[in-house]
Amino acid sequence: MRQSSRTSRRLAAAAVSLVVAAGAAACAGPQDNDAKDGGAGQGKPKKGGTLSVLNTEPQSDFDPARLYTSGGGNVPSLVFRTLTTRNRADGAAGTKVVPDLATDTGRPNADATEWTYTLKKGLKFEDGTPITSADIKYGIERSFAAELSGGAPYLRDWLIGGADYEGPYKDPKGLDSIVTPDERTIVFKLNKPEGDFPFVATQTQFAPVPKKKDTGAKYEEHPVSSGPYRVVKNEGDGVHLTLERNPHWSEETDDQRHAYPDRIDVKAGLDAAVINQRLSTSSGADAAAITTDTNLGPAELAQIGGDKELAARVGTGHFGYTNYLAFNPKVKPFDNAKVRQAIAYAINRTSVINAAGGSALAEPATTFLPEQKAFGHTPYDHFPAGKTGNPAKARELLREAGFDKGLTISLTHSTVQNRETSPEVATAVQEALKKAGITVKLVGLEQNAFNEARWSGKDSPGFYLSRWGADWPSGGPFLAPIFDGRQIVEDGSNFNHALLDDPEVNKEIDEINKLTDLDAAAKRWGALDAKIGEKALDVPLFHPVYKRLYGKDVKNVVISDWTGVLDISQVAVK
Q1: Angle 56-90-421 (CA atoms, 0-180°, nearest 5)?
Q2: pLDDT of residue 535
Q3: Distances in Å between the alpha carbon of 497 and those of 47, 452, 461, 538?
Q4: Residue 216 to residue 203: CA distance in whole angstroms
């Protein structure tokens, strides 16, 4: 594994951690949102007013090169347009890739190693200058600069020459694998087939940046807008952002963003309880407020449940995310498949769901892939434990494995109270396994130490709580990092917890990556998930559900299964 890939995976690990820490701020997606016919209020949405955004985490590194987003992000998507973007629609319809700056989602060559895009006519920056293919090429190239690190790693690994490129500040000649034959055409040349390239083209690295306006690390203070809003204030590295209309943005070239509010005021650094209280009360400016990173907890949901008006202002989202038990088969007794199967049979998913916050905030999982068509979800339950576990079957397997008198193992978890990898969930697992004759000793680590342990390629625990969320709604970014043997990293962030290096699995991943028919690819990802599941290399526990409150004057609430959270580009406040 070359050094560039190791670096990329460290960046990916950091991004996953940030997403989780923020309550999956950029990652979650809905089935119901009470948003038909204009949303919370009555009547159709109208232009005007100020939308307030109340968040715990600042919108830091507000530079398209440094942001780790998919689908264009949420707040970033108001300022940065990309070649493609997510379909701004409710539920499953929102998992589709659609054109943004480009006229289509990309035209591949015969083996998907080359992708060509044509820009729409009439595209302009906030100062009225035309957006060209050279601006997109330069925007991508600057994301390779060390001083602008933090974005998604895919282009460094996928583009020919990307592994060694250091950005335009050191190498102004640029990447030969990004070709701009004219002002409206851009061509990408890849190391290997990538049928998911249209998904990657939704990330903010694909936002155009005018070379003459690039101020390096200071660009985030006043980035040049290609979207419906421009930045007029950025205080405290994203703690307070003020956005106003970009007069040169046109809805004629952008059918995805509505840009209803005249002004958007984003304030961060707030306590989660304070945010939910302010949204609940909805007094003054808070009546036209939302949050993009703060969920409701079990206690708050219990209070809201008795108030019909408040309950009608809760958006529900589902995102491609799975919480699971991970095994390191290199550590005894987890090298024995029957031991792993016994644990799978013993799990009481009802108690795990309760520990995760209850059925309103978590749904049981028996597959690694999330239960969405876009991922290729194929139902299976190779080790059926029912709702409360099957300790008898677990004991039978333990006897077959040579543990007639049971066994004692350790389970590593985080001490952070996140209801995913935290003590509550670990305790639920401990109690379930006890009924099967398995004594579980809990090993709690603070968050940084926990992440270092579970992503270690050399010293990961034998048994630990983990979780994974995809960068876009496809089976590829879900299964490949976890089960592709060529992505095992010994001296960096290793996501292949089982250290699986199966030639058949690796080959199938390559074959699916060649497919540009996303529906056909999804079916193959589902079949691969079911095949890997037979090996009992993990125990899927649950998929989180996101519940977020919004102000009483907020209209046109749209929550897709791509993000799982309210889409800020659709909101109206009048």
Answers
A1: 45
A2: 98
A3: 49, 12, 9, 9
A4: 19
